[in-house]
UniProtKB/TrEMBL annotation:
Origin organism lineage: Bacteria, Pseudomonadati, Pseudomonadota, Alphaproteobacteria, Sphingomonadales
Stored Pfam families: MazE_antitoxin
GO MF annotation: an example: DNA binding
Organism, scientific name: Sphingomonas donggukensis
Protein name: AbrB/MazE/SpoVT family DNA-binding domain-containing protein
Keywords annotated in UniProt: DNA-binding
Signal sequence bounds: none
Every SpoVT-AbrB domain range: 16-59
Amino acid sequence: MNKPFAPQKLTALRIIKIGNSAGVILPKEALARLGVGIGDTVTVTETPDGFRLTGPDDGFDAQMSVAREVMARRRKALRELAK
């Protein structure tokens, strides 16, 4: 059973240089709550209050898999519609 959400103390994260980009290091507790690990993808969404970081959406991946299958089967029809 999931624990009810309880706001946690804010943790300051330092921005570091990663090649030509910048990034932050997330604490392992944050990774665990997001359900992600090294190499996984997260989504950043801008909200009125700041930014929201979310883990992967398994339902979306399943939907995209079905969509790719349909696009492969109906490739000719989709090309005709694109004209």
